């Protein structure tokens, strides 16, 4: 069976070395020097200095045309030259979660053009989204990206664009953790 549950463990040693931690909104988390991503299960065990758990879930907002396009152009995470990574846990506000599904989709895709913007950065930026809200975690989403050093500027540009959108006005906690392969 393919694993769908992962723990991201922040600690003093591990797979990825933390190069920068920035609390962009909301409460910070304890600073760590390393991060490790491991397949896991739903049992809550605190490993390292902190453990954040996320689940690979179904798509909520993506329509078939975009889904087919994403599948055809996105890269998987395993490329050897992708020596840089970003781990960005995000929480959205109660106001967001009180919206209906169609209202959320309208904000994300029509007004904020999240997928449209993101697709311009594929396949250079490999991405994976983990959901955490339904398992009582402090964040709603754990986002994980891998890229080669040559694509670092493009990644900054993507973040800059997304963070200016209406969708991001609903983000009430965001920690940006940058990493490099040891
Ligand atoms: C969700 C595409 C970059 C944060 C999504 C979804 C798509 C997508 C298609 C919707 C999934 C669904 O239907 O449920 C992309 C592409 C990117 C990209 C192609 C290019 C690399 C980013 C970045 C961030 C981000 C840089 C933030 C740091 C999120 C979050 C969600 C999401 C938090 C979940 C939103 C929600 O369900 O409310 N992305 N994305 N994405 N993305 Fe991105």
What does the model show?
- This protein is of the alpha+beta class and 182 residues long.
- It is 24% helix and 34% strand.
- It has 5 helices and 8 strands.
- The protein has helices at residues 64-73, 94-97, 101-111, 114-119, 152-163, and strands at residues 5-11, 16-25, 34-39, 50-55, 84-92, 126-131, 141-147, 171-181.
- Strand 2 (16-25) and strand 3 (34-39) form a beta hairpin.
- The two termini are 30 Å apart.
- The model has no long low-confidence stretch (mean pLDDT 95).
- Bound molecules: protoporphyrin IX containing FE.
- Protoporphyrin IX containing FE binds at residues 59-62, 70, 88, 90, 92, 114-115, 118-119, 121-122, 125, 127, 129, 141, 143, 158-159, 162.
